[in-house]
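One such given next:

>
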Amino acid sequence: MKTSAKRANPAVIVFAAVVLAGMALFSSPALAEEPLLLVTSGFVVERNLVDGKMVEELVPLPENISSMTIIQYEIIGTNQSDKALKNIDIVGAIPTGTLYENNTASSDTDSSILFSFDNRQTFAPAPLTRTVVAEDGTQKVVPVSSDEYTDIKFVVTELPAGEAFKITYRVMLQ
C-alpha cells in the first residue's frame, strides 16, 4: 500500500491497494510528524453456515487468493495533533482485477462516500452516470455499472484532536 499525507487544507491522504499474484498487504502509518496516522489493512471475508445462519469472519490475507474471493479493506485514521482536522480525503483504489462490492463502503464517523470510474479524474456519490454522444450528435446520460468503478473516496468531515475513525469497503477478486 502506498500512503502519503499532506498538510494542506483539506488534508489529503491517498492510499492505493494493489492486488498482485501472491498478494501482500502493507500497513503504512503516516510519518510521525504528520497530524494523521493512517493504518490500512486487508482481510479475506469468509462466509460459513453456522446453526442455519450465514456468519462472516475476517481472516488475514493469505499469500494466494482465488477468484471470487471477497477482500475487505480497513483504514483507521488517528488524529495525532492537538487540533481538529477537517475535510480529510481518504482515496482508495479498487484494484485492477477486482470489482467493488455494492453497498459495502462504511464509516464510523460523519463522512461522504464518493466513487470514480475515470481513475480519480472525477468523484460523485453512487450511482454514477456518464454522458455519451450518439452518432447523430445527441447526448444521453447513462448509468455507470459499479463494475467500472476504479476508486473510492471517503471525505471525513471533522476529526477532533486525539480521536480516530474507521472506514471499510469490499472488493471481489475476478
Observations:
- The domain at 2-173 is CATH 2.60.40 (Immunoglobulin-like).
- The radius of gyration is 18 Å.
- DSSP finds no helices and 13 strands in the chain.
- Residues 3 and 163 are 20 Å apart (CA to CA).
